[in-house]
Amino acid sequence: MLVLKPSCECCDVDLPPESTRARICSFECTFCERCADQKLKGVCPNCGGELVRRPVRPAEKLAKYPASRERTFKPQGCAGRQ
């Protein structure tokens, strides 16, 4: 089950579980749409994997399986790709 991390690892912007602007890799590293597209060019800086839109968990399931509250902030790893 996806962890649904609450924020972007690059800029720390909030990414609530219902957000369609969250991007993840296969290891669930989480970024906002802006950082994923503009800074990272669709590639995870941690694993090199593809960044894709994170699915939205249905509200009735979110109550039973809540999103994570643990924030991961690593701005030093998000300098961007050339």
TrEMBL record:
Matches recorded under InterPro entries: DUF1272
Highest taxon of source: Bacteria
UniProt xrefs under Pfam families: DUF1272
Annotated protein name in UniProt: DUF1272 domain-containing protein
Source species: Hydrogenophaga crocea
